[in-house]
Design a protein that fits this description.
It is a single chain. With 284 residues, this protein is mainly beta. The protein has 2 domains: 141 residues, Elongation Factor Tu (Ef-tu), domain 3; 135 residues, Jelly Rolls. It is built from 2 helices and 22 strands. The longest helix has 14 residues. This is Minor tail protein.
Length: 284
């Protein structure tokens, strides 16, 4: 595995000194890669102690000790300038696995990158410093997404769920989706519907229901992003108002669940696709 920094126009591997003799390298002592801190909400009880209400994950703070080596003083300055540009705005910290997949954390620099001359420097081309960053979203997101699709070709007849038994008409598309989340945190599904379709129902394994009551003609599409809550059609127009009352933007917990996706007015080109990326509380 290795760490790397990624911005919109550059990538810096944090093992370049070991591999090439010059560059930037993360050294022993990186902190903040494990589970994030949490804030707990307690309610005072009528008796002794308190009752736990809920929790939320706090932003993740990471300290990365860096060893920077140039082939000359000017080359060291080039590496420092390149690193400074990298972390001067939003960037990503990526944990790359041996198979080439990676986990991403979006971050901002909050401090560090200073040094004491003669203490953190050796000669004119060798420098040690610490980069301190913060990730507002403390979860690591996996590079590979998973996808399941229900189409009008789904076998019809009596469709049985743990909630009820449904007779599926010829103009309906309905199917069970096996949603696998190998991460250690809930994943947010993105739903993409291709028309013709109307009255779209998305039901979780625990009975949570997300229903869109609008309609799409052939070739029109709808996207529901459960992480941001955005509901847009193929033109980019906001279609949130067409959701049924009390919509539940339900998530996929770690493990395996079965969900139900259904729509009315379906034709051979109709489909409902669910896409999600696993997330993790920590990397090792």
């Amino acid at each position: 595995m290795r760490l790397q920094l990624v911005s919109s126009n550059d990538i810096i591997w944090l093992d370049e000194v070991s591999r090439f003799g010059v560059g930037v390298e993360a050294t022993v002592g990186v902190t903040g890669l494990g589970m994030p801190e949490v804030s707990l909400n307690w309610v005072e009880s009528a008796g002794d102690g308190a009752v736990f209400r809920n929790e939320r994950k706090r932003p993740r703070d990471i300290d990365i000790p860096l060893h920077i080596v140039g082939s000359s003083r000017n080359d060291l300055k080039w590496w420092m300038d390149r690193l400074a540009l990298m972390v001067s705005g939003p960037f990503a910290l990526q944990w790359v696995e041996d198979n080439g997949t990676y986990w991403t954390l979006n971050a901002y620099r909050t401090g560090g990158m200073g040094y004491t001359y003669g203490v953190d420097t050796r000669g004119s081309r060798d420098l040690n410093t610490v980069l301190t960053v913060r990730a507002g979203d403390p979860y690591w997101t996996y590079s590979q997404s998973s996808r399941e699709v229900v189409t009008a070709a789904t076998p019809r007849g009596n469709f049985v769920t743990k909630f009820h038994k449904i007779r599926v008409a010829s103009s309906q598309a309905m199917g069970g989706m096996i949603l696998r989340n190998p991460g250690t945190a809930k994943a947010y599904p993105q739903w993409d519907v291709t028309g013709p379709a109307q009255n779209i129902r998305l039901i979780s394994s625990t009975g949570e229901r997300l229903q869109w009551t609008g309609s799409l003609t052939a070739g029109q599409t709808l996207r529901i992003n459960t992480q941001t809550g955005a509901v847009t059609d193929h033109t980019g127009a906001n279609r949130y108002a067409d959701l049924a009352s009390a919509p539940r933007m339900w998530t996929i917990p770690p493990g395996v669940i079965t969900a139900v996706a259904a729509m009315d007015g379906a034709a051979s080109t109709s489909s409902i696709a669910c896409t999600w990326r696993p997330r993790s509380l920590l990397v090792v």
